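Methods — Computational structure assignment.
A single polypeptide chain was analysed. Its primary sequence is given first, followed by the predicted tertiary structure written as structure tokens.
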Amino acid sequence: MSARLHLPTGWVTFVFTDIEGSTRLAQLLGPGYRPVLAEHHRLLRRTIAATEGAELLTEGDSFFLAFGDASAALTACLSAQRALADHEWPTPEAAPRVRMGLHTGWAEPRDGEYASPEVHRAARVAAAAHGGQVLCSAATAWRAEPLPAGASLLDLGLHRLRGFDDRERLFQLVAPGLERQFPRPRTADAVAHNLPIQVTSFVGRQAERVELRQLVAGHRLVTVLGAGGGGKTRLAVELATDLVEQYPDGVWFVDIAAVTDPGLVAFAIAAVLGLRPEPGRPMVDTLVEYAAARRMLIVLDTCDAQPAACADVVSRLLAGGNGVRVLATTREPLALPGEVVWRIPPLSVDPSPDGTESDAVALLLDRTTAARGGREPDPAESADLRRVVRRLDGLPLAIELAAARLRVLSVGQLAERLDDVLGTLDAGRDDPQPPVDPDQADSQREPDPAPAAPRASPPAQANRAGTRSAAERHLTMQATVTWSYRTLGPRAARLLRWLAVFAGPVELPTVEWMLGDDPLDPLSVLVDKSLVLAEPQVAGGTYRMLDPIRAYAARRLAEAGEEEAARNRHVAWSQHALERAHLGPNGQPVTLSLYALDPLAGELRAALRWCATGGSARTGLRLAGGLDQWWRERGLAREGRLWLFRLYGRLAETGEAVPEGELAAAYHMHSLHAGADGEFAEELRYSQRAEAAARQAGDAGLLARVLAGRAAPLFDMGQFAEAERVCREVIDWAHEQGVDSEALFAVLRLAELLWRRGALDEAAELLGAARPVEASRPVDRGRRSVDMLLGMVALARGDLVAAHEHLLAALRSRMNHGFHGRACDTLNAIAVRCAAGGEALTAARLFGAAQATRAGLRSASGIYDAYWAEQQTRLRRVLGDTAFDEAYGEGTELGLDEAVELALGVEHPDLAADSARFAAQAGGIVPRQPTATADRHTGHA
């Protein structure tokens, strides 16, 4: 028909079509392009004729059509696209991809043509489309009734068409036989970024943002590395949002987790940039050519989903032009030249220097408030909030999941349940990604990229297949860690499982000892994949797992049937480490330092837990014995008792045989713990059990040590004369048996009793004889109990010079070797010496510091407490209430190290016999002998 004779008037729907990438297609096909173009013309004219559309202009591969009915125009476009898709072209690469645009407006033809801005608007709608896509304006959508059978219109939002000031709402025709997934429309107002819009506030990370921004400014490839759930994506998006104005060609976010095949990585990036495949040309070449002349930042998220393919594309992009920068997030490096790897740290769990809450607590507060409908946690929950974030190692995803649990739990309840980290955080959610056996991981890795572009739209394939899994991998901690675990080979997976038995950081020799093999290769894999954190130290690096990852690995350890072997190996290592803490480099015993036990405490607790639940209770008793003094000096006597009770229960459960001598040592230790914890009936009961077991063992030295401890419960129950009698009998019996040194505790207890009743000369003589015995015993000499007691005797005599020298010697040794509980008594004694020497304010500060530290250690009252209270009352009378309270309060603000520094800085008294510091001063403190009204509670010099 003649278009010039049948041009519609009034509300006319204009249609423009052309072949996307026609120039490239012509170059590819050469002489074969002409028949393809002719077939394209024939198919479009056939559909136009069927709907009575008017063909106004045909030029090259372009059509300009006019329809009197909008519905008919959409039907024609739908039919044309289906005809193009169903046609058998010479080769798949020869198939033309046609884009179509429709707009409806009022128009009247003149001289066989339309002179109307509506025609230009229709052309701009078509220019916004992609090959295979049909776009229409809102005017066409409003008048296109009815739509073709099975078809619908997808609202793509408002867009500003090139050359027009207003915004046009665009719709995409969706119907069976048409592609659905396309890049964003090519319009003038295409935003300079596609960064995801966040629905929650961004909390903390100020220092990290500054540091990362500097790296991106100075380097073209920056990789943010970290464990799953560590906040890599959120930090990268926040940073990229700040940088939008610096990149005129945009900041573009690409989620590689949604890419199901390595060959589709380049397509995913191209789709975000609005690029489509060109016939016969690799997509990566199209991508590189496009980016070469542009200045843009590409944020590649979750590159570990396709690490090799990402590395290849990034390498090509960076080599293709100077204006492209890449910010990648991943769990393992891309290993490219010029790559700057920045490991994202967990959120800080320690309060800021200005007193504000840590980033981790701030995040938990924010998310908890949201979870509770805007109601902020009660200030009384602050301590438990800190416990939770420390237990979760500041891992953002774990904190987010924990906040969700606070809809139904109090913070305290949540903190108590975090021994089962995964079970608590993932409660109520199914693991969407079942675990994969790492032994078969190689068979599940993605295939190599295909050299040829797929026929269907690759971004559409990737989005359809991968979006769900990309979102679900962070629904649970289980899914998050499984994402990385499934990529491990057998050796790395086994090492991860076995490292789960450690409670804290480990050194390389420890890993080697544990594995029984060179661990460098599998350990490097775990570090690269951010499942293990490497923490460089001057003396050598350490390696640790975040607690949620450790909990996951522990589950896998049990499922692999390896738990018993791994935990027994860990117990053996713990026992070995405990023995080494008591020995010097030459293998000989050295003075016990509790500081050597501090870093082992977490591992020993883990080992004890296994001994009490699935391992050897006998070995557990030995481990507990190695921590004997540590429990009490760290204010943890109650914890020590609980471990012993658990081990007794394990013995009863398994019937494991334990020699009487080992039981006697355990009962003796238990008695001392009970006394320090104020459980005096329990103290006596276990003292009696220890004696019975020691007699059965027939070990004189052991029996001497146990009998020496019998005085403590007697003293605690107020039986002072009986306690003194027991001490003397033990000392005499030990001498007869030739085990004098094993009765040292009885000697020290007797000296305390003599000091208490004022028998100072006998006490001093007894202590003088005990000094070489104490010096010969590595487990005892660091306490310098002899010097402490001689200092107390000197104070009672009014000899400030002797008191000063003995007490400072005791304090130095006790602090040097980690005896913090005993150091508090020494600080009190030095406070008495200061008060007697005229340094009243210093005395009050030291009293306050000692009390604050003892309260933190939860120490029970000691033998000297009544004496300290009496001396403080005298000092208060000298200073007055206001001055005393102020100085005492200043002391409570001091840490133990600061208080010790203050005490050691006290000036030595004059050595002259007539010094005023030896005489009573008017209104001053006069040292006095203790009376029989001294405190009845236990204490150990």
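Note: The CA atoms of residues 203 and 765 lie 66 Å apart.
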